[in-house]
Structures are given as C-alpha cells and as structure tokens.
Write a structure and sequence with these properties.
131 residues; mainly alpha; 2 domains; 3-stranded antiparallel β-sheet; 3 strands
C-alpha cells in the first residue's frame, strides 16, 4: 500500500457539489461519481460501510452513501490505496469517531439496553450449559 502524503489527506473533501436530495439511484450515483455501475456494486460487496437501501429490487443511496463512495474513490484512485488498505483506513476512521452526546433519557435507555443484553447473554450461557 502506498503511503499517502499529508497534502492528499487534507484534500479528502469531494470537489463535486452534491445535489440537495435525500435519495439517489445507482444511475445518479455513477454519473456524479464518474464510475461504472459494476464498480459501485463491487464496492458494496467489499466495503461493509457502503450499504444502500433496497426497495423493490432497486438501490437507493443517501447523501452519506454518496459521500462515502467519493471517499472510497479518492482513496483508491487518487491516493493509491489498495482495497484492503482503503478498508483499513475507513475502519480506523469510523472507530475514531467520537460517540454522540446522549440526552439523559437516551442515556438511561442505553443503560437499560446494556443491562438487558448482559442478562440475555447470561441466560443464553445458562441454557447452553444446562442443556
């Protein structure tokens, strides 16, 4: 994997102005990102972060998906990353994102969910051991 220089790291913002829409079809995405549709479908298989919604057999990408496609394209085509290198870079980036600040109600709900998850795991272990 070629190591990107600092100039490339600072130029990761897409230069393309994205239309102000909620959903984009695969045709719109390939046109905006200047890719082939088979490349985009392959990237969906390789990059777990890229997961467009599918309705009635059609893919619908949201703005975040489109930005991710542009970032993947930048990593692969402009910065010279390999696919495993780009996957590692995106995984590292996602792991480094700070968690959202939760309201007190949300924090309480999260606490309850963590307790429920722990109890469910303990019960599963008990059942597995017992039977």
């Amino acid at each position: 994997m070629e190591k990107p220089n600092q100039e490339n790291l600072n130029s990761m913002q897409p230069l393309t102005a994205l239309p102000d829409k909620k959903y984009f079809t695969i045709g719109e995405v390939v046109k905006i990102c200047e890719l082939k549709s088979h490349v985009l479908r392959y990237w969906e298989q390789v990059f777990p972060q890229l997961e467009p919604s599918k309705r009635r057999g059609r893919r619908y990408y949201q703005r975040e998906d489109l930005e991710l496609v542009l970032e993947i394209k930048n990593l692969l085509h402009e910065q010279g990353f390999t696919i495993p290198g780009a996957k590692a870079r995106l995984a590292k980036k996602n792991a480094a994102l700070p968690e959202k600040v939760l309201s007190s109600d949300q924090a309480q709900i999260m606490s309850i969910l963590h307790i429920m998850k722990k109890e469910q795991q303990e019960f599963k272990a008990y059942i597995t051991h017992r039977f």
